[in-house]
Every structure is written in structure tokens, then in C-alpha cells.
Design a protein that fits this description.
By secondary structure, this protein is α/β, with parallel strands linked by helices. It has 2 domains: 8-233, Alanine racemase (TIM Barrel); 242-355, Beta Barrel (Elongation Factor Tu (Ef-tu), domain 3). The protein has 10 helices and 18 strands. It has helices at 8-24, 40-47, 59-68, 85-91, 100-113, 137-145, 169-186, 201-205, 220-224, 339-346, and strands at residues 3-6, 28-32, 53-56, 73-76, 94-97, 117-122, 150-156, 192-196, 215-218, 226-227, 232-233, 242-255, 281-287, 299-301, 307-311, 316-319, 332-337, 352-355. Strands 1, 12, 13, 14, 15, 16, 17 and 18 form an 8-stranded mixed β-sheet that branches. It is elongated and about 75 Å long. Its EC number is 5.1.1.1. Its cofactor is pyridoxal 5'-phosphate. This is Alanine racemase. Keywords: Isomerase, Pyridoxal phosphate. It is an enzyme of class 5 (isomerase).
Amino acid sequence: MAYITLDRKKLKTNYDYLDALFKDNGIEWAIVTKMLCGYEPYLKEVLDLGIKEVCDARISNLKKIKQIAPEVQTVYIKPPAKRAIEDIVKYADVSFNSEFSTIKLLSEEAERQGKMHKVIIMIELGDLREGVMGESLMDFYGSVFDLPNITVTGIGSNLNCLHGVMPSHDKFIQLSLYEQLIEAKFNRKIPWVTGGTSVVIPLLKIHQLPKGINHFRVGETLYFGTDLVNQNIFEGMEPDVLRLYAEIIEITKKPTVPIGSLEANPSGDKFEIDESDYGKTSLRAILDLGLLDINADYLIPEDKDFEFVGASSDMLVIDLGENKQGYKVGDLIPFDLKYMGALTLLNSAYIEKRVI
């Protein structure tokens, strides 16, 4: 049976690396837990690290976090749906916002619940996902400052999330200037300028991040040690906090070329025959997971000697080549994971989760 593991010691190594990096630069930070899909044993491992703030994009996950660690500040990191306002105020201490009408509803609900709700107003810096346009910023903030039971605790941005626009010194200078203009115009202090995410860490390490950026939200680099700009692993970090193990359920030597009339498979793919493969065979293994759980593009095999052949909903087929490892039925094949692969696996009810 396929299962995924979280390595407690490696998670702590990566946490300590990031915590030291941010403390050395006078930056506050939060852990993004959305990839863990609300799985409580993994959430507990993250919360046991000692972090004081967590970010998630699912209300149900924030609810679990509040149940595990009520003292931790919870941040809802996408613009709230209007139908979720009551739960946002109930389970999120802070929310990211880009619509005044939504913040007005948050204000009304916070008043009903007897709370002060914190908001971070997201600014558009070019990636064209969520964010208020710069020319509307002053009027937007002026209106929000007038709302009761709302505290504006930050200005923020996201880059590289939709169109792949990369962070740069100039873009963060722009974000910092927005914060300074708002503080000067309204005589209000904006505590956080939260422009930092995993993809921004390389800028920080080469001292190209303006001092005004004082808050980060980090998920991917914590779990994978990833330098997303240079496409490698930061020295001193662990790449495999999370690891997949898939079991071999069949090994058979079979023809390389399918036999029969070919049409598209259920995924819509049509196999193209290489005529030079006629008469050849290969040693194929079937693993006990499939497209329902993960796309093979997100798997990084530890063994570089086999190749992916294809996948159906519940089975993944690999070509073992010469089978130098001597695999047999029942053996486990280990894989490191890309971010989106771990996300889909953790969201699958069919994959067992373990802590090691």
C-alpha cells in the first residue's frame, strides 16, 4: 500500500534554518500549512516547532489549528468568499483582502462576534492574481480605516503564483513605498509589509530585498528546502521532509508496443508507436497508486534507472530496465516529491500518512 511520510527531524532542521535566517534579518514569518490539507498529525508536528503564526487557504484547516493551538495566530490567505464571512471571523485572526465590500461584511460580522478582525490588503504588483490596483490604493485604504472592528495590520503582495512573474528589488521597493505613502497620508502605522514567500528567499539571501519588507509566509521551502529561483536545494536544508513509498503489485516482462487497435485512453492520451520497438520487450512493474493520487510528473524517483511508462486512475506503470536493484513484488519504491505532487497526495483519502 502506498504511503507518505513526514520526517520530524528533517522538518525541524529546515525550520531552524529558516527561523535563524529571518531572525538575522529582523523579519517575522509564518508557516503556510495549506499543503498539509488539514491532516492533524502533520499540523501538530508543525505547531510543535514553536511557530506563532500559521497561514492557510481553507477555513476547515484553520478551525483544526485553533483546536490544537488556540494561542497561534491564524491567517486566511485568500480573499474571503462572502458566504464564508462568519467562519472567517470565527477561525481566522487575520485575512487577506482585496474587495472593500467583503471587508465591510467582515466588519459587521466582527461586531456581531465582539471581535477585532485584522486585515492585510493585497496589492497588485503584476502577477495579476489577487490585489488592489495601485491607482485605487489610497481611496481603498481611506474607506477601510473608517470601518469599525477592523484593524489594518498589513499591506501585502503575491508574485509567481499565476503568471510566473518573478520577485525583484524594484517591485518590493514599490510595495514599501505604498506602505510609506499610506502611513504618511492617514497617519496610521502599518505593522507588516508581507511580500515574502518561498520564491523571495533567494533575494533575501543575496541582500537584494528592501528593508521595508518585514514579513514572510513560507511553505514550500520549509518542506522541500527549495531555492525556487535557482532550482536547487539550499545548502543546509533537507529536500525530503515528505517522501512517498509505493508498493510493487506486479512485475512482468511484456512487449514494449501495445497489441491491438489503438484509440485514446480514459485520460484522452493516444499512444504513438515507434516502429523500431516492434518485437522488443521490457520488464514492467505496476505500482499501487495512480492519477487519482498524483501525476507522475510530480514524482522524483530515488532510483534513476527506471522510466515511467504511463498511468491509469489507480495504477502507475514503470519500466525497470535491467532491474539492477532486483525489485520484486511487495517491494517499496521511494520517491521525493514536487510541491504540487505532495499537495495532491496529502489531499487523497487513499494514501496513508505517517510520521517518522
